[in-house]
Amino acid sequence: xxxxxxxxxxxxxxxxxxxxxxxxxxxxxxxxxxxxxxxxxxxxxxxxxxxxxxxxxxxxxxxxxxxxxxxxxxxxxxxxxxxxxxxxxxxxxxxxxxxxxxxxxxxxxxxxxxxxxxxxxxxxxxxxxxxxxxxxxxxxxxxxxxxxxxxxxxxxxxxxxxxxxxxxxxxxxxxxxxxxxxxxxxxxxxxxxxxxxxxxxxxxxxxxxxxxxxxxxxxxxxxxxxxxxxxxxxxxxxxxxxxxxxxxxxxxxxxxxxxxxxxxxxxxxxxxxxxxxxxxxxxxxxxxxxxxxxxxxxxxxxxxxxxxxxxxxxxxxxxxxxxxxxxxxxxxxxxxxxxxxxxxxxxxxxxxxxxxxxxxxxxxxxxxxxxxxxxxxxxxxxxxxxxxxxxxxxxxxxxxxxxxxxxxxxxxxxxxxxxxxxxxxxxxxxxxxxxxxxxxxxxxxxxxxxxxxxxxxxxxxxxxxxxxxxxxxxxxxxxxxxxxxx
Length: 486
Prior knowledge:
BirA Bifunctional Protein, domain 2, single chain, alpha+beta
């Protein structure tokens, strides 16, 4: 949602003749005072200051030499001097911290793993370093970047100068909540010329918002009255969207103060418009929590579609050979053809060679008064509203099962698919192991494993975490035997 919206804002600005630029991200504290004047102290309270680790003076005394030699690394004058040179370069900034372990290892003629252990144990001053803050901040308002960009361009570009930038800003919020993040995307533009008025801001804001379907606009003086705008020009933009059927605040614009501009040597008039990309995305996609929209993996409600769940369900044990898969097809065909035969009964599903052995495979039911297969043998598996259910071929009267057939995703798997795949796999295993015969009996199905199905752990976590069900109950009553023939 967010990046689709950013792309659409970019197209809107380009269509209006604005050129895209990248504004400075690092802003010195002095620039905040130049731009915001008396407000700077309050603004800086919301800024992140950058800090860095100081580079210590690291000496190579006898105590450290002894510790290095105790771990099995012999030292000589050349190695000691090489270590001193590396740490001297590190202190001066000529040596990259990324390369320090490798370069120390080269100087000592050891592997990097041992070099790292030596740095950790012999030079604790590196591990004990504390960050030291500087006077540089992360950009909290795109305006801070615009003053620096215009300072460089205002005498080098033909008027009008029309630029836009869609990039991150960073604000030290007290907390992140439904409408506030510590990093957000400002979709901002400037229009610099010799004669600029708030009419320019109105025209640009209307054109940008019309791109998103807003039809009516109203402009309200902004009571915040930032000091970097000329008094009376800071304006909030409200748009009416026919789908939302409501007025919503979507942008702010104003004319930069000539006092603030003069501190950067800028003698042009400049209109600035700011649009919050997250704000527009939330409005257009009816989102109530900016955290869920931007970070769905962390804050959003976990959702897997029925189709996604269907891809996570599969037959577990499956015949590995082509002959074994043909055997599975024979078992399915014979079972389908004679599944309702009265018992006791038996049917030969396959007789011939499999993996170099002559075998006979039967589907049997020795008990009297039943049928070859139980009534749930051909139940089909559906995914419906996050539930996994087995649906009978006929006489479906349960509400959940009816909903599954009407609106769910059919997996194309029946209970007998799993049963015959398992039987074929075990028959292959029997032949390879040298066993003379095998008998496999599936009675009541109560779970996925009873019919040889496997569900990915992600899907299982989703189903259990959302109080969904896996209902594969039913009487299968299938017996498959196999015997190696002499």
